[in-house]
Amino acid sequence: MIVRTLQETEQSQRCVKSATWKSVRMLLADDNMGFSFHITTIFANTETPIWYQNHLESVYCISGEGEVETCADGKIYPIKPGTLYILDKNDKHLLRANSEMQMACVFNPPLNGREVHDKNGAYQLNEPALSAQE
Fold first, then answer.
1. CB 52 within 8 A of CB 90
2. Confidence (pTM)
3. What's the CA gap between 94 and 71, in Å, rounded?
C-alpha cells in the first residue's frame, strides 16, 4: 500500500512549479499504477497553452473558476468546482484561470516526475524518474 499526504508531497521533489501552475505529483510512473495523479494549482489570471501529444489527461476542478478553449474549433468550456474535462484526443487547448483553481489531474501514460511543458505545451516521455521515496 502507498500512503502519501498532499502536505508532505508538496514539500518533496514531486512538487513542480512553472510561471502559471504548481503540480503536486502524488502518484508517478515508478509507483507502477499505470497512471499518475496530481493536485495542480492554476494561478489566478493566467493562460497556459497546452498540447499533450504524448498523454491523455482527465482534470477535475476542486475549487476556483476559469475556462478551457479547444484550439481546433475555438470552443470555450467554463470550469467551476465539480467540472470534469477529459482530453481524450490529445486536444491542443488554452487553460485560463479567472481565480486560483485547484485541480485533480490523472495522466496516462503516467508522468515520471519533473516534467514541465515543452515549447509545444507537451510533456516528453523520456524524463528521468524520481525514486519512490522522493
1. yes
2. 0.87
3. 7
